[in-house]
UniProtKB/TrEMBL annotation:
Listed name of the protein: VOC family protein
Highest rank taxon of the organism: Bacteria
Gene3D superfamilies in the cross-refs: 2,3-Dihydroxybiphenyl 1,2-Dioxygenase, domain 1
Name of one Pfam family that matches: Glyoxalase
Keyword annotations: Metal-binding
UniProt domain VOC: residue ranges: 5-120
PROSITE patterns tied to this protein: GLYOXALASE_I_1, VOC
Length: 120
């Protein structure tokens, strides 16, 4: 077997409206059509997708609260990390600068899913 590309990541969210605000308005991701019969939203990021699926009784699953990058997370690239940081702070989302000295930060969506944002 030879894996040729990563297609999508599925994330659980408890409140679709709050999640859509974060992924659509704060991160600026493009929603795409989906024809499934359960609540959720899909986003396109280049050739990759993020699938949000509703789970109404979701519990935060942070295993390492001190270093968010040592938890399950997805990583997204930006061209301007300072702009991304300011946007997240303005919108009231928490940020943690990467401890690795890379040009990267971590944030959490409204359900505590960790998102890494790196300068590429």
């Amino acid at each position: 077997m030879q894996i040729t590309q990563c297609l999508h990541t599925a994330l659980l969210v408890s409140d679709l409206e709050k999640a859509q605000n974060f992924y659509s308005n704060v991160l600026g991701l493009a929603k795409i059509d989906r024809t499934l019969n359960y609540p959720g939203v899909w986003y396109q990021v280049g050739t990759y997708q993020i699938h949000l699926m509703v789970h109404p009784h979701l519990e935060n699953s942070l295993k390492n609260e001190e270093k968010w990058g040592r938890n399950p997370h997805i990583a997204l690239a930006v061209d301007n990390l300072d702009e991304a940081k300011k946007r997240l702070q303005t919108e009231g989302y928490p940020i943690q600068i990467s401890a690795s000295a890379r040009a990267a930060l971590f944030t959490q969506d409204p359900d505590g899913n960790i998102i890494e944002i790196s300068k590429m």
